[in-house]
Give the backbone structure.
Amino acid sequence: MGASEPVEERENDGEERVEEEEGKEKREGEEEHKKDKDLEKGEVGVEERVGKGSPEGQRDFHVSMLQRLNPSNPLRVAIPGMNRASTPSPAQPRSISTPTPQQAVVTLNSTAYTNRISLFLFLLHAVLAVGLVCFLIFKGIQGLLEGGSAERKEMKVLKYFLPQVEVASLLSITLAFSWQKAVRTWPQFMVYFILWCTFLMSLSAGILLICFQMPATDGVGVCFIAFSIGNGLYACWVTQRTNFCSKIFIKSLDPVSKFPDLNHPTYWMLGVGFLWMSLWVLAVIGALNFYFPPLIIIVLGLSLAWTAEVMRNVANLTVSRVIALYYLRGMQCSTKFCFQRALSRNLGSACLGSLFVPSIETMRIVARGLNLLEGEDEFMFSCAHCCLHVMESIFEYGNGWAYVLIAAYGKGFVQASQDTWELFKKRKMQAIVDSDITSAICFLTGVCSGSICVIVVAAWTFTVHPGFTATISLLVFFIGYLMARIAMALPHACVSCYYVCYAENPNNRLFDKTIPDRLHLIETGRDVVVPTPRVPRRFTP
């Protein structure tokens, strides 16, 4: 029994020593944690951590080194029984890497409002237009209530003017739905049909108006016949491009079937446009009972043209975002969300583009016409090259292809136009997009719709009140043209998305060999294209 006491004492001494060692290790661990960074740099000597070279200090040092390996060199381990530890390597300068500037990340969910100045101007114009229309409607009602000559004049207008215009509005919206449905169902046939149907309808409208044998109708009829002749020449000129245009229509309209509600924004725009045009017609009638009726009617016409073009571009932006995200990211996004975005964040770009693009398209037509006359007359020669030089500088800052990048990335109109044209240059697609006739097909659709309205309404008006025939003919042509242009926003946007998205990512599996084969034929000279005339190199600095 007595012999067991020293054992218990040794066990107690061992327990106390273990506790003491654990306490030391804990303190050493805290100190090592503070000096760990200096140890990695080699700034702290080993003797400083061993503690005057005592055996306990060496053992603690060995244990701590086994528990905490050097992260810079995990294989450096202290061997037990050694009185000296190896001297740590001298401090090495830590390389400091200079951060490289990151490129701007292109986001698909930009929250910034584009072209705010244009948006403000359009909203201001909308407020003024609504106020003017309401005031003129009030003046019209006031003229009816006052009696006398003003009452008789407005009663005649309401009886022989308003019914024809309202019927023309209904006819135009019906034709607009029909055009879009036909183009989506039979795209290849409709390209040829629109080219030649527009020629026949405009020619028929012109002949009909001339047959009325009145100076006003004769003047309007001559304009229609002149346009029909130009349209026939254009249809013959672009015969070689109609096959490729038909292929692009077929390919670009393929994704539409995946979005059953993609037509809804266009329908909403057509409905709003029909209501606004109905009020607009009443304002035109009220303008006859106010000062300077011709000037006021011209102002109303310009306002209606800008508003209808903005409606068309809102539908264009909605369809462009849906189709562009499908091509670029494989996403099937909500049409409702894209429509809300087009009406809010991208509305400023739609307003600016509605002013720019029609002017640029008109300049393209003039440039091509003058280019055909080049060399025949010195004056025409100089005018042609002046117009072409203006086209060269303006086209890169404003074109109809920009709506795709506006809708997809939320860019401003000018920036999107520049980026789009740079993409076309990068892929060497200028010849293809310059010779594209999609915008011409959509334009001629509006002309054809307007000519049909003229034929129907002019014959009706001449039988009831011949004096209004010329005025109503111009008015219903304008309404029919605008409504058809709004309806054709969907196929036009689909074709634009096909070109621009291919230029951004030609390796996308959703694209076939249609564009590469066309480029190959152009490069080898086996296909003839008639691009937008450019300034010849000898005239460029």
About this structure: The CA atoms of residues 199 and 228 lie 5 Å apart.
